Amino acid sequence: MSTYDHSEWSAETAAIRAFHQRTHEQEHVDPLYMTSSFVYGSAAEAMRKFSGEEEGNVYARFHNPTVQLFEKRLAAMEGGEQCVATSSGMSAILSLALGLLKSGDEILASSALFGSTVGLFRNYLEKFGVGIRFISATEVVNPEAWEKAITPQTRLLFAETPSNPLATLIDIRAVADVAHRHGALLVIDNCFCTPVLQQPLALGADIVVHSATKYIDGQGRAIGGAVVGRREHMQDIFNVVRTCGPCLSPFNAWLFTKGLETLSLRMKAHCEQAAALAEWLEAHPAVAKVYYCGLPSHPQHELAKRQLRAFGAVVGFEVHGGRDAAWSVIDSTQMLSITGNLGDVRTTITHPATTTHGKLTLEQRVAAGIEEGLIRVSVGLEGLDDIKRDLARGLDALAAC
Ligand SMILES: *Cc1c(COP(=O)(O)O)cnc(C)c1O
């Protein structure tokens, strides 16, 4: 077995080589330990491992070397002390809540969150006595709005930045300061950015959550999640996974380690394509507005430049003509995948008002800024000209009307 000191390695190198432990087989690539349990050399060793007196593998609900390798690499890339991997992005958020909250505590959240996250908070945490308050989509940009809404019961502040699909940013450092002044923790769902584009912990956030299903896998194969942060918090979350069981499959963990190896390269390519597509869309006569924080027209472009290494690969845009026009553009595509998923090498296209945000009331949708003419594209890695041509078919027809 060999291990290397990786403390000076770049994220690119860490993603490929950190914590590799070669076995006696001398394999080159990280092995996949597809095993649910482990054996001991003696009864006494079993006793020591079970009691925790001696470190080592016991049972794959909480110890699996393939899962642990993924956790260590992602922690290194996020700049966190420890990572706990989970069976999905949603179970990462659930485990975080179970580990760190108790009845009577409150979450203060941006209202511009992934729909199931809102559902988890509202439908499940609330019934166990955890209070949820939301900051409106227009106010999340303003750290004073967070400060005003915080109460002595607030334990967690929770946000996605840039948001989906309107690319609204929160100032991570300023909102982290608000949290810390009131004894609360800031949690950032970093799924849209990955550590390649944004490192919330370095900006003052306390905890990062991920849906590894998106860019970390990057090729649409597997569901998984992770939580990264300081050891004191991660130990509580690890104990939830250990006892309650939302653990990551070693096979999926292995796929995700393969995903991490190319993450930097893929994110760079995704972002370059998205930036070029956003510019092209902004110049198209059928397009009323583009939501992409890499455009100088984005109201928080300066903050985006400070907070992000590149601007992400999800582009929202509104066409003139409402739902009919938006649907006609979507239905005119031949190559793009009509699906709500994102973070894939395949470009996907969706109509948020009737899919991802379809459960909102009209009033909530208007408040969130989700117009009927809005289309969301998760820009993949096909040739940019092919993506443009597929969108141009519908857009040119609209412009000609
Ligand atoms: C997809 C997603 C999740 C949930 O992740 P799953 O892996 O689908 O459970 C959470 N947050 C964001 C921002 C997402 O896009």
TrEMBL record:
GO terms for cellular component: cytoplasm. Homotetramer. It comes from Zymobacter palmae. The gene is metZ. Catalyzes the formation of L-homocysteine from O-succinyl-L-homoserine (OSHS) and hydrogen sulfide. Its EC number is 2.5.1.-. This is O-succinylhomoserine sulfhydrylase. It comes from the Bacteria. The modification N6-(pyridoxal phosphate)lysine is found at K214. One of its GO terms (biological process) is homocysteine biosynthetic process. CDD domains: CGS_like. Its cofactor is pyridoxal 5'-phosphate. The keyword NADP does not apply. GO terms for molecular function: carbon-sulfur lyase activity; pyridoxal phosphate binding; transferase activity, transferring alkyl or aryl (other than methyl) groups. It catalyses: O-succinyl-L-homoserine + hydrogen sulfide = L-homocysteine + succinate. Belongs to the trans-sulfuration enzymes family. MetZ subfamily. Pathway: Amino-acid biosynthesis; L-methionine biosynthesis via de novo pathway; L-homocysteine from O-succinyl-L-homoserine: step 1/1. NCBIfam families: O_suc_HS_sulf (TIGR01325), PRK08133.1 (NF006003). It is an enzyme of class 2 (transferase). Keywords: Amino-acid biosynthesis, Lyase, Methionine biosynthesis, Pyridoxal phosphate, Transferase.
